[in-house]
Amino acid sequence: NGIHYDPVTDEPISSIIGIRSYFDGQSTIRLSKSTRFTNIDLSGLPESEMNVARMVAITFVNESFVKTNSEDPRKIERMVMILEVDKMWKNEYCKQLIASLYRTARKKNCGCWVITQSLTDFGDDEATRTIFENTSSMLLFKHQFSTKEYLQKKINITDSQMATLVELGGDREADPELKRRHRGEMCVVDSGHVY
């Protein structure tokens, strides 16, 4: 433990010297809304400590960035949060924190992007349903045909749209030229319309 002083504001900073860096992004930058990009990277942590670190990170983002953004559209700061959530779904409390963050972000004019491997990762519980219902646009890449029932229920996709969705990006085993021509294909769902 020790007390240091912020070189800009001359405010006292309490520090704890430890052996692990939980938030191992750029530690030399000042973490505030004026920072153009803040990365909270937890990848260096052992799996046993991930859940607590994820909950701390979500709460920190909500309190320090989202809740302090203005509700007045003339005074807002442009802000987008990007959450990679596939591993967070395993913890019920994490899901509830993300759902709360998602609701607050909409009220505070903050964009929220959620990244996951498949829409089926959302499941059907109340927390992920809140996130799903508050999402206005989705960019979907190739999904497995086995997800058809789930996708049709969640995004009201037709059989022909589903057939296209499972073919996006081409066949991995097919001709390399064919695969190259289909690279980057996606399905866009915007306000209930599927493109």
Fill in the keyword field for this structure:
14% strand, 7 strands, 195 residues, alpha+beta, two-stranded antiparallel sheet, 3-stranded antiparallel sheet, elongated
What do these coordinates show?
This protein has 195 residues and is of the alpha+beta class. It is 35% helix and 14% strand. It contains six helices and seven strands, in the order ββαβαβαβαααββ. The chain has a three-stranded antiparallel β-sheet with strand order 5-6-7, with no helix packed on it. Strands 1-2 form a two-stranded antiparallel sheet. Helix 2 links the parallel strand 3 and strand 4. Helix 1 runs parallel beside helix 2 and helix 2 packs parallel to helix 3. The longest helix has 20 residues. The relative contact order is 0.09. About 3% of the residues have low confidence.
Q: Helices, strands, pairings?
A:
Elements (H helix, E strand, L loop, with lengths): L1 E4 L6 E4 L31 H20 L13 E5 L7 H16 L3 E5 L10 H8 L3 E4 L7 H8 L3 H9 L8 H7 L4 E4 L2 E2 L1
Parallel strand pairs: 3-4
Antiparallel strand pairs: 1-2, 5-6, 6-7
What is the oligomeric state here? single chain
Strand fraction equals 5-15%
Distance between the termini: 55 Å
Largest sheet: 3 strands, antiparallel
Average residue pLDDT: 78
Q: Brief overview, please?
A:
This protein is an alpha+beta fold. Helix content is 35%, strand content 14%.
